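Lab notebook, design round three. We kept the backbone fixed and only want residue identities now. Task for the bench partner: fill in a sequence for the structure below.
Input structure tokens:
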């Protein structure tokens, strides 16, 4: 049903005055070539940064296998407390970090936090006490807090909604590569035991932290600004990117001034809280899996080095699945259904881990768990990001969801207790519950998005455009959905709540 004066009746035509930088001719820009240029400049370097982020965060799990607890004189409980201390600043500071990122240069903000956490990582190699370990884990959480949500938000400001999944999957595969490489690297570095009077586990922290510092320095020159000011693009290319994003209903592209109402829009949106449930469903398992996979395999009867090496094929497999899921998600644009399948696979994997008493079967279940956990992350990130419009609102929503998910790492990092070895039934049971929450929240997210799209198709969300139009029907619509002077005013004010915005399932 079309309403006279509603946004539906006026939004079909394009007014040249609404065109971003209308005086700029972009007819000579080759879209495919431009996207390749952006891909090469953005994705590989951010993949490397997240590789280092994941490698540094999880290296304590590898160091643990080389007598770190014994050398520091700490108990298993104290070790778990130290792991937990990381997650509180890591989760709580993420929303703030994304707001800062949008207001200053990404090269400055992301590179600086990376430099600090590299220094903190190196300091791990000079530990002598439990108190020092806890303090450094807190500092590491502070320093690393903004990187992952910042990168996700940054990438979402460059690509159309149908292109996000592949790019985020490509960047996130670095986490699976880090999981595989960390075992190989730790096994190699441990051979430096005794060099300069330092233990093997100390060298793991020192060398990994040093490389992070070097990459952070390079990042000041390599990371680009947001599309509207990116120096590696020509003026025509920058305008072309903004126009194609706006055609994809990303109206905040090209710059958006910060206003406090964007925070309240995110806090008042039901999508934020279901997204937090989805992120909880995979982030809790993700941290537990990355921190304890070598330990779980070792307790099945293998030596420390063999356990680290046996974790490599698990991560290689999850890397392959992550890339495939990213491609399929962008092609089909049915990320919700993919989430249900992935979480379902995770449920099967952890049920096997709980019931199995055979090392080979448990090892197989690790493959199922990894192929469920890792691909779900970029698929969910792309799904949520594509359904939230407004750059600040999207940044805050992503940071809240990621922050809440990461906060659950404080729980999942404590579920694999030494007294539960070698089968860890309690830990596996808790992770199984996390995955079930993720499945249920994904199903609810799909249902709510579909219902909202149907309401918009029926005209129930139509705004009134042109304040001179009056009448009982339009006055009722104005009271319910808002009255605006122009279509541009409506879509910029309402973002993804605009009546012509359609959510992707």
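Proposed sequence:
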């Amino acid at each position: 049903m079309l309403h006279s004066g509603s946004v539906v009746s006026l939004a079909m035509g394009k007014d040249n005055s609404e065109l971003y930088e209308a005086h700029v001719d972009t007819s000579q820009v080759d879209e495919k070539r431009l996207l390749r240029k952006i891909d090469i400049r953005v994705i590989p370097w951010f993949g490397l940064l997240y590789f280092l982020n994941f490698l540094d965060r999880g290296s304590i799990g590898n160091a643990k296998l080389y007598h770190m607890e014994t050398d520091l004189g700490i108990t298993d409980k104290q070790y778990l407390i130290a792991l937990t201390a990381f997650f509180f600043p890591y989760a709580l500071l993420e929303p703030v970090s994304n707001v800062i990122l949008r207001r200053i240069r990404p090269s400055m903000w992301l590179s600086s936090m990376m430099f600090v956490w590299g220094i903190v990582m190196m300091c791990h190699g000079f530990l002598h006490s439990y108190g020092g370990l806890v303090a450094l884990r807190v500092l590491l959480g502070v320093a690393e807090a903004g990187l992952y949500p910042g990168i996700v938000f940054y990438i979402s400001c460059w690509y159309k909604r149908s292109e996000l999944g592949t790019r985020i999957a490509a960047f996130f595969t670095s986490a699976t590569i880090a999981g595989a490489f960390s075992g190989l690297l730790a096994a190699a570095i441990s051979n430096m035991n005794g060099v300069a009077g330092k233990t093997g586990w100390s060298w793991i922290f020192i060398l990994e932290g040093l490389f992070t510092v070097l990459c952070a320095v390079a990042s000041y020159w390599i990371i680009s600004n947001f599309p509207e000011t990116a120096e590696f693009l020509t003026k025509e290319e920058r305008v072309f990117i903004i126009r194609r994003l706006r055609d994809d209903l990303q109206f905040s592209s090209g710059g958006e001034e910060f206003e406090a109402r964007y925070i309240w829009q995110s806090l008042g949106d039901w999508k934020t809280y279901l997204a937090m449930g989805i992120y909880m469903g995979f982030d809790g398992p993700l941290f537990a899996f990355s921190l304890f996979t070598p330990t779980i395999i070792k307790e099945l009867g293998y030596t420390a080095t063999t356990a680290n090496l046996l974790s490599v094929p698990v991560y290689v497999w999850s890397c392959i699945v992550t890339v495939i899921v990213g491609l399929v998600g962008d092609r089909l644009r049915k990320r919700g259904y993919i989430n249900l399948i992935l979480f379902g696979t995770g449920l099967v994997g952890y049920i096997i881990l709980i019931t199995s008493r055979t090392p080979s079967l448990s090892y197989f279940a690790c493959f199922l768990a990894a192929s469920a956990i890792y691909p779900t992350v970029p698929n969910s990130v792309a799904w949520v990001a594509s359904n939230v419009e407004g750059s600040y609102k999207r940044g805050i929503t992503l940071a809240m969801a990621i922050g809440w998910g990461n906060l659950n790492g404080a729980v999942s990092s404590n579920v694999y207790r030494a007294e539960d070895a070698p089968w860890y039934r309690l830990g596996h049971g808790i992770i199984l519950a996390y995955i079930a929450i993720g499945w249920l929240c994904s199903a609810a997210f799909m249902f709510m998005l579909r219902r909202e799209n149907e309401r918009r198709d029926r005209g129930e969300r139509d705004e009134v455009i042109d304040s001179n139009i009056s009448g009982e029907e339009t006055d009722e619509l104005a009271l319910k959905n808002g009255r605006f002077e122009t279509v541009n005013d409506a879509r910029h004010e309402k973002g993804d709540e605009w009546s012509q915005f359609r959510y992707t399932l």
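Keep this in mind before ordering anything: The CA atoms of residues 63 and 201 lie 5 Å apart.
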